[in-house]
Amino acid sequence: MISNPSKNTVIVCLFILGIVTRLLLLNTHGSADLNEYMRWGKNTHDVGLSKAFEGGYFPIQYLIFGVTDTVAGVLGTTPEGAIKITNLIFEIGCLALLGYLLRKHLSLLSIMLLFWLNPFAITISQQGYVDAQFGFFILLSLICLAHHSTGFKKYLLAGIPLGISLLMKPQTAPLMVGLVLLAIVFLFLKQRKDILKIVTMFIAPIILYAGFSLYFALTLDITNNHKSLTSISARIQDKTHLSPRLADISANSLFLTAQYVFVATQRMPAINAQMPNAWFFVANILNNNNERIYRVKDTQKLFGLQYRTMGSLLFFAVLIVIMIKISRSTSTLDRKIILSLTAIPILLPYLTTSAHENHFYLGFICSIILGGFLSDKFILYGGFILGTLNAINLIQYYILPYYAGIEHTTLNLTPVTLVSSIIFFTLLYHLLFKLHVKVSPL
User: Fold this and answer.
1) CA separation (Å) from 204 to 67, 155, 162, 207, 375?
2) Least confident of 261-275, 318-332, 414-428
3) Residue 194, Cβ neighbours under 10 Å: how many?
4) DSSP code per residue over 61-113
């Protein structure tokens, strides 16, 4: 095939424009999360993962922060700048993987416009969020699934980057839950022959998870501010008569799991954590004390049901309907998995509580994949608009207050949140009732 020189020139120019824009914004004021990233990285570099790890994010992400801190020291740059440069490298990786994954579905020019130059991608980069890092491994997993082979090997390989991302940020955990749910849907639809291949995708994540659990089991000092583990160790000694060292190892092996449980159940239990979704309006109605919106807890109840439970039930109900539609299509198993996994990050931050202002980043990327695979312009444009609205939301929360002194209020946040919610529910209606699952070959 003869390439079009003028089109290639435009693509190169757009790529350079995206790079230059990000580099020009490199030294601008970023998210407060950068302070946590730098602290975690310095501690990991100085005292090692076992002593530095305190949850929030997970071990592999801590190790990346540790490497970033080391590189900053070697190159003489600021840790904040090193984190943003690392993010940029992963962003370029995401662009490359996205282009490869969608090479027969969307032109590279379209991907440049939809992803690379979208205000949301640029704002996320400017703020220093690390979502592109775990997003890179999710995309790598999808590429493994999209391989033309049909055996178990590709599902095993797809599980490796998926397992890496699981040990980076909490947003990967719903994808693992989604795979379990998809297997249940297959069982319900009597497509049992496909379930074993889905199970194969869990092998690498389980091995990686067990490896880090064993690492903490052998290296963690539970006498250092780990009262619950000390208590568990004492109970193990009392019940099993194991030696104190073996009891400590047994208790320590639960440390990583406890961190996942804490993140899922107790870390920032907000109805809305600055995500422009419909929960914003619920949180403001319940905000009687005029607190910051992320202080309004989703453990409050309506008709005896916690708001977080309502959000979870709504998410699972919608996801099951979409998964059934996907599973009943004539698509191959790998395509069914890809479509199901890409639907989850689109739905999750809009339907569940506790979603943060950056949590739609993976969903924004997945809207391009889902729309590209299905040749559905409604999904493509809907995702682009939602990304842009999420960018405006970030600008209102962080950039305008810092550079223009314009503080965010419920009044000035309401328009973009309202439009964002309307666009999402319009897209959701399309996914539930108008979507035709027909995938062209890769």
Assistant:
1) 23, 10, 8, 5, 32
2) 261-275
3) 19
4) HHHHHHHHHHHHHHHT--HHHHHHHHHHHHHHHHHHHHHHHTTTTS-HHHHII
Q: pLDDT at residue 216 above 60?
A: yes
- Identify the pLDDT of residue 405: 95
Distance set, CA 402 to CA 81, 129, 238, 399 (Å): 18, 17, 56, 5
How many Å separate Cα 106 from the centre of its chain? Answer: 23
Residue in the block written with tokens 């299509």 = 329
Mapping DSSP to helix (H, G, I), strand (E, B) and coil, where does residue 148 land? coil
CA torsion sign, 86 to 89 to 95 to 100? negative
User: Residue 272 to residues 46, 155, 292, 297, 352: CA-CA distances in angstroms?
Assistant: 35, 36, 10, 8, 9
The rounded distance, in Å, linking the Cα atoms of 384 and 119 is 9
Q: Which long-range contacts (CB under 8 A, 24 or more apart) does 403-408 make?
A: 403/29
Q: How far is it, in rounded angstroms, from Cα 302 to Cα 431?
A: 28
Contact (Cβ atoms closer than 8 angstroms) between residue 171 and residue 260: no
Distance CA 115, CA 367 (A): 10
pLDDT in tens, 218-255: 998 876 656 677 777 778 877 787 877 887 788 888 89
CA atoms within 13 A on the CB side of 274: 20
Task: Report which of 289, 268, 292, 264 is spatially closest to residue 280, judged by C-alpha positions.
Answer: 292
Strand partners, 273: 356
- Cβ atoms of 370 and 377 within 8 Å: the answer is no
pTM of full prediction above 0.85: yes
